[in-house]
Specification:
homodimer; about 220 residues; 6-stranded parallel sheet; 10 helices; globular
Chain lengths: ~220, ~220
């Protein structure tokens, strides 16, 4: 195994609960109330798919313009709920370890560049880190495009990549990309939800992953 | 089975994500950062136990005054994040069904009366509903006191009561009270987390519980 492809929100930065509450509020404002726990389970899909899932949930079709407006409003509410971003425990150490060990890594996020920027900044990444965001691919998770774009830019084969993510959408996208995946509980899913969605291993957070990284058989490039 | 004792937050009203984000923010402000997913798993304990668990998490003791101040601050932030309360799908119908069917029910919440008041109001309860809150007992969940106080006031035996809750703290308190329990996913736990903590059945939310209520063998008093 030669490379690790990370999800961003809930995997490296502690943002899932603010994302959830922001979407919950935006959908309620738009008279499309979706209960919090169901919103939580939609985080990590693209905003477009999320609004589609929410419209299915309440049984009403949304126009493209409505979906776009909801996503813009989510960006506003999210920023007001979470003006600063906090890396998850061990995230900075894990990325530093991979960098210093010459193990390739990349980040693939369903977020748009503007939403992701503050989170990426909080991670203090090496300047040459490969980041693929929503705007770079046609279809976000659970489609495999984001992870395949990371893999191509890393110059490795899919079978040589681990995907690390907190949501079932990461794990499904990994399977479809032909990659093994690792689940983290730091996005608030239960352990079995992640195992059932295909996670090869489940750790609490980046800190636990780092402490057990020998279990992954990664090698330097 | 003759009675149903409900938890409030996450079981009848959709408040868990606001509670989580409020505690997350208050703990971060106090320089006691605890990741969101760990805060989420503490919701439903008393505020006192929650601050104790958080202080354990960061490895620093809190004075009683500090713990009290954090709880007061949580009340403020929570109210600002969630000015109005939303019943979970089916909550009003379920309570109405029990009332009209002469099946006894009560509510036992770890929240203090002021925090719980707005949630109770949103449920539009019959005026004689038995509600036992944090202030009525010495120790909140996962101690069994809240549920035992409900059971005594309902005039039934513990073995005749179901507890319905969304958090493992409800399910643990139910076991200690000698009651069967039912888990709801509407607080954001995974299904297996609730089953393993002792839930006899797990439903999505009050609406699903109501649609399958024949599975519970409840009878009128």
């Amino acid at each position: 195994m030669r490379a690790v492809i990370f999800d961003l929100d809930g995997t490296l930065v502690d943002t899932v609960y603010a994302h959830t509450l922001a979407w919950w509020q935006v959908l309620a404002e738009a008279d499309m109330p979706v209960p919090g726990w169901k919103v939580h389970r939609l985080i990590g899909m693209s905003g477009g798919l999320l609004t589609k899932a929410a419209s299915h949930e309440i049984g009403r079709e949304l126009s493209a313009a409505e979906a776009e407006r909801l996503q813009a409003r989510h960006g506003e509410v999210y920023k007001s709920l979470l003006p600063t971003r906090t890396p998850l425990p061990g995230a900075l150490d894990l990325l530093r370890h991979l960098h210093e060990s010459d193990i390739k890594f990349a980040i693939g996020t369903s977020g748009k560049r503007a939403d992701a920027a503050a989170s990426l900044e909080a991670l203090n990444l090496p300047s040459d880190t490969i980041v693929v965001d929503r705007t770079a691919v046609e279809r976000a998770k659970p489609e495999p495009d984001l992870f395949l774009a990371c893999q191509e830019r890393l110059g490795v084969r899919p079978a040589e990549c681990y995907v690390v993510g907190d949501a079932v959408w990461d794990l499904l996208a990994a399977r479809r990309a032909g990659m093994l995946s690792i689940g983290l509980l730091s996005g608030g899913y239960g352990e079995e939800e992640l195992s059932r969605a295909g996670a090869y291993r489940v750790y609490h957070d980046p800190a636990e992953l780092l402490s057990l990284i020998y279990q992954l058989g990664l090698r330097a490039s």
